[in-house]
Amino acid sequence: MRIAIDAMGGDHAPEATVQGAVLAAKEWSDTEIILVGDETKIKAFLTEQPPNMKIVHATEMIEPDDEPVKAVRRKKDSSMVVAGRLVKQREADAFISAGNTGALMTTALLIVGRMKGIERPALAPMIPTVDGAGVLALDLGANMDATPEQLVQYAIMGSIYRNIVHGVAKPRIGLLNVGTEAMKGNELTKAAYPLLEQAHIHFIGNVESRDILQAKCDVIVCDGFAGNIMLKSIEGAASTIFSALKTEFTKSWLTKIAALIVKPGLSQFKNKMDYAEHGAAPLLGVDGLVMKSHGSSNAVAVKNAVRQARIAVQNDLVRSISAEISNGSEM
């Protein structure tokens, strides 16, 4: 198995990327880790190189503020494009990047290619939940608009991913909406609801965003506009709450004592909600395994992204989704 990593993508690259890649290479000796990027910069943080790791040199990198389409077309020797090309040419089984999200999606479409039968790929990150199981959400930003038929494709891909990668036997699929009643919502959700009922999935109906963290479903389906707003709202609320708690617990010696008492429980809860545990979000619907890590990924997050990629490759995720879509099971 060969997994390519965009060594230059992310807020803490290449240091965190290289460190995470080394951790992964040591953990899984049966997997070849391919670091793609500026060889000199990579080696500056590579204190040791496991035998199952190699470097593929790339002279350019795509910056966070680069315009996605122009960057991918002009920077043909960027670490992201070169890594995508490795997947396209079947020289790597998967490709992971924490870099520019728009550029990664463009690379996936222009370089790796869209899966036959899929109208639009979907970005599918895990949203942490209080029980630790998480909810797979798609689409959360790859496409701002979607058709009812595309939402059904998202649901099918999400169901397969949760089953294959996370071992959920019969994933519960929910449709993000403003109410639980079948006829609630806008024209998109109203049209998608009956199609989801007919699909070969375990559709449980509409789910409100306030119920996501309570794990009322295993997969939540939505268009990229609503999904991205939901994700950013949850991230913002979590960040604000933890920041406010820190302020309150450091106000006086009495609150500091109280903080020591509750610290184990708070730490455990914070770990449940930590993006690093989930590693990366797959871009489902691409004819190759492409995964997007959080921009601020640390070494642990990179390692966990490799773990996710390994499971997906071992269980032939891409072919499973392709077969299901080709069979027309969404109708």
What does this structure look like?
The chain has helices at residues 15-27, 39-44, 68-74, 79-88, 101-112, 148-166, 187-198, 224-249, 253-272, 299-314, 317-326; strands spanning 2-6, 32-37, 53-57, 94-97, 122-123, 126-127, 135-138, 172-176, 202-207, 219-221, 280-284, 289-293. It is of the alpha/beta class. It folds into two domains: 1-118 and 281-331, Isopropylmalate Dehydrogenase (3-Layer(aba) Sandwich), CATH 3.40.718; 126-277, Isopropylmalate Dehydrogenase (3-Layer(aba) Sandwich), CATH 3.40.718. The longest helix is centred in the C-terminal third of the chain and has 26 residues, at 224-249. Keywords: Acyltransferase, Cytoplasm, Lipid biosynthesis, Lipid metabolism, Phospholipid biosynthesis, Phospholipid metabolism, Transferase.
Outline, from the CA principal axes? globular
- Mean pLDDT rating: 89
Write down the domain tally.
Answer: 2
- Total number of strands: 12
Q: Could you tell me how far the N terminus lies from the C terminus, measured between alpha carbons in angstroms?
A: 34 Å
Reading the helices and strands in chain order gives EHEHEHHEHEEEHEHEEHHEEHH
CATH third-level topology of the largest domain: Isopropylmalate Dehydrogenase
Radius of gyration, in Å, reads 20 Å
Summed up, the helix count is 11
Name the quaternary structure. Answer: single chain
